[in-house]
Specification:
With about 375 residues, the chain is of the alpha+beta class. The chain has 9 helices and 18 strands.
Length: about 375
């Protein structure tokens, strides 16, 4: 989990941002950002709030009080009772009353900070009713700026996620063979990842084998693995709230010369990115360099039709984006996934390789060590 010290440092930076914008009080409603500042993680569809009052006092509103948090006061609402039927409507009303009780102790202000894309109409009405004349300032841009540069405790959780993914890849080779199915491989890998993580972590992944991988990934199916298939496996679970994201490609049988050449193209693209990415480099320039490299080979020309990578953190994909229209610039402290790929029917699928890195002042620190080879 995030450390209390790390959350305290981020909370202090967030208070400075509120003061800079002249915001009287803030209501944080995205559970990821509540966790980011308070250390309290609830990956559930139940309302979670962090209220920062004008005096600097902080209130955590949750259905499950934490053992430890950076906030000054916790207000818990009831999410289950024998006296009323379970429904989201009923639970939300309990959370509304908790939010009202906190806001009653805060005087009206001229500017309120809210997450406009994460505040439902029900709770938005409560905030608006507190200070009807107040301007509501969207906190989303401030959070994206803050979250781009990762703190040491955040990086440590991403490393933990990467190690859990690598444990899954360690059993993949034995599970992948002609006659097995995508679901068979998923079952073996998922079990090992959960075992390594030590709890039933939130798990997302692409398991696309053979020709199915050419036009994207997807959930594992009962599709049978055929001799000659290339099996792209792209895994991005959430480990105590933070995502890692690794992709490897496995050959179902002895790879052909053409498949080996495609692997070399993807590997070299990864190396180009590793050499190129530094603080101050534009993300779109990296995408173009990788696209030009892959397009220089006729048999896979035009097949690299996805992003070259993205940031990692509380979301599986976040800034900086390595896409043609990106205006993001790499900074020290960014945690990124780089994932070049090339695809063709002649390959019986494609090759995509992905590693996770921290951007440091002098280059990239690779967080993943699992082999890239088939």
């Amino acid at each position: 989990m995030l450390t209390k010290e790390g959350c305290g440092e981020r909370l202090a930076r967030f208070r400075e941002e509120l003061a800079r914008q002249g915001i009287g009080f803030a209501v944080v409603s995205n559970y990821r950002n509540v966790y980011y500042l308070s250390g309290h993680l609830r990956e559930v569809e139940l309302p979670q709030f962090l209220v920062l009052g004008p005096s600097g006092k902080t209130f955590l509103i949750t259905d499950a009080p934490p053992a430890e948090t950076t906030t000054d006061e916790t207000v818990a609402y009831e999410a289950y009772s024998l006296d009323w039927p379970i429904s989201f409507r009923g639970i939300a009303q309990k959370a509304v009353e908790a939010l009202k009780s906190v806001l009653r102790g805060i005087p009206p202000v001229h500017r309120i900070g809210v997450e406009k894309d994460r505040l439902s109409a029900l709770f938005g009405a409560v905030v608006s009713g507190h200070s009807p004349q107040a301007e509501q300032v969207d906190l989303g841009p401030a959070f994206y700026r803050m979250r781009k540069r990762k703190s040491p405790d955040e990086i440590q959780l991403i490393v933990g996620c990467v190690k859990a993914i690598e444990a899954g890849y360690a059993v993949a080779r034995a599970a992948i063979h002609p006659g097995a199915t995508e679901l068979d491989v998923f079952k073996e890998m998922h079990g090992e990842i959960v075992r390594h993580a030590g709890y039933n972590l939130k798990f997302e992944a692409d398991f696309a084998c053979g020709l199915r991988a050419i036009n994207g990934g997807g959930t594992p199916l009962r599709s049978e693995i055929l001799a000659g298939d290339l099996f792209i496996i792209d895994i991005y679970p959430s480990f105590h709230g933070y995502y890692g994201d690794l992709c490897r490609t496995f050959a179902a049988s002895s790879p052909t010369d053409l498949q080996m050449k495609a692997w070399e193209i993807a590997r070299d693209a990864l190396r180009i990115a590793e050499e190129m990415i530094r603080p101050g480099i534009r993300a779109r320039d990296v995408w173009k360099e990788l696209r030009d490299h892959i397009d220089s080979y006729e048999f896979v020309r035009g097949s690299f039709n996805h992003h070259a990578g993205h940031g990692l953190g509380l979301d599986p994909q976040e800034p900086p984006w390595m896409i043609p229209g990106s205006d993001h610039v790499f900074e020290a402290g960014d945690v990124i996934a780089v994932e070049p790929g090339c695809y063709a029917e002649a390959l019986q699928g494609g090759v995509r390789l992905e590693c996770d890195y921290v951007v440091r002042e002098n280059g990239l620190e690779n967080l993943s060590s699992f082999r890239l080879e088939f």
